[in-house]
Design goal:
Blueprint lengths: L7 E3 L5 E3 L3 E2 L10 H13 L4 E3 L8 H9 L8 E6 L6 H15 L4 E6 L7 H14 L2 E7 L3 H9 L9 E4 L11 H8 L3 E4 L11 H10 L3 H10 L4 E3 L6 H9 L7 H10 L13
Parallel strand pairs: 3-4, 4-5, 5-6, 6-7, 7-8, 8-9, 9-10
Antiparallel strand pairs: 1-2
Helix pairs in contact: 1-2, 1-9, 2-3, 3-4, 7-8
Amino acid sequence: MPIATIRTIPLPSGEEIPVLGQGTWGYAEDPGRRESEISTLRHGLDLGMTLVDTAEMYANGAAEELVGEAISGRRDEVFLISKVLPSNATREGTIAACERSLRRLGTDRIDLYLLHWRGPVPLEETIDAFTALVNAGYVRHWGVSNFDVADLAELASLPGGAAVETDQVLYNLTRRGIEWDLLPACQGRGLPIMAYSPFERGRMIGHPGLGTIAERHGVSSAQVALAWTLHQDGVNAIPRAGTAEHAEENRAALDLQLTPGDLAELDRMFPPPTGPRPLEVL
């Protein structure tokens, strides 16, 4: 099947990545869903959602193994992301964790390798490891996850820290705190925000206001929520799909054009921040 193409956004390095990808948080936790999860990921690739995000933490590595099976024979189509736990993020620990992830994923390279969140290991050590992995060809780009403005400023001040390519954070209609400072700061330096949990793990989908807008457009509430996230400059999203039909629903959200009236309604229902907030995580 020919692969569909979708809109892209640039990394600071200039490489273009899909604005909509596929998350795998929660995959590989139930053996009974394994085949469905693999087929969902493969169907998502066919739809152009070739950015696939996973992590060594997800299902204790089993999600990486599942992703490796799903992309087997199609590796060159995929922009593959994985993450190192902060407890492993020493120089030696990061390199060893990356090697384990490569084995589980069945590949010789990770396209974007992230520090999952900030821990006690000095950032200098992790940057040094990321740089070594890039130089060795095991990692093409590196980035961070769950970093706030001060964390990114510190990162940028360190040797090699300017090579960061993305900050993956929690962002959706109910979690808009980053709009006060983090999102504008990243937009100003051309650093994409990669939004995880754009549906708040499904908790926002029953909101009646979302349903009203969805009905007006003949779409689902989830598609309204995802379209809102994707309309922001410099933001891409990595929702998880449970089925092939859900993957199609996510892909179709890219075609939904919210009107200025829709956006104003959503601002009333889910107000933007009026001051700084601590970075939220799930």
